[in-house]
Amino acid sequence: MNLIEEIIFTSKQVIIDADCKKEDLIVLLKNTGENTVQLNGELILTLPKGHHIIRFTKDHFCLLYNTTLSFYSLTGKFVSEFEVGSHIHELFPYKDGVLCTYGDQGVYGKGAGVNILNCVSPFSGLESFYNNAIQYDLLYDPLVTRYKPYACINLERNELVILNEQLEEEKTMKIPFDTGNLITFALTYKYGLFIEENKLCVWEFETTKRILEYKREFSSKIRAIFHRHDFSFIEISDYEVKGFMPVVEYGT
To answer: CA separation (Å) from 128 to 14, 81, 101, 117, 134?
Structure first.
């Protein structure tokens, strides 16, 4: 197995967060007294400092500031904003908005965060997925990715859980190794690609279920984008965004 690495963005300013979708790269940058947003290298928005997560949605992008989630057009025009509660752990693109997951050392967020899992869309607002979160163990720090159409990891059972469009469980698969140190994962129709701090594991889960490992140090600021981009993962450091594409050769 080979791991193709490519620097896809560099900056003299500190990079707070970034996201990729198809041919587009959006970056949230830290400046003196303000934050800025660049889309494909072009400045599109200047904001007060304090924003810390940026994500593409289906037709927009969103920014998280404290307990407020704001949506913008790709030209930087304000669309809408919603109160989403405290202690947001991650924003995951879902339908035309994002899923909000909550948690702070095992304590769920306050306000809207008591729902444990919310969907927020630019025009329809906030929808609670509390019942799904409880029923299918989509609790604190769920690792979610796109696959037929969605999947998550149940860390207690060490299982891959396949979900439908409504985030209801369709089936589960036992993962043949410990996922306790998992940072992120991506799924293709043939492989499961699991990243820990010091290695990338490949699970050929629909065939022989054999495991390959690629030794490398990964930071906690890496996440899967396979379903939206040619790269499987992006990793964000202070001054660059790097893309990763594992290439698995049969018989290796």
So the answer is: 34, 16, 11, 6, 12
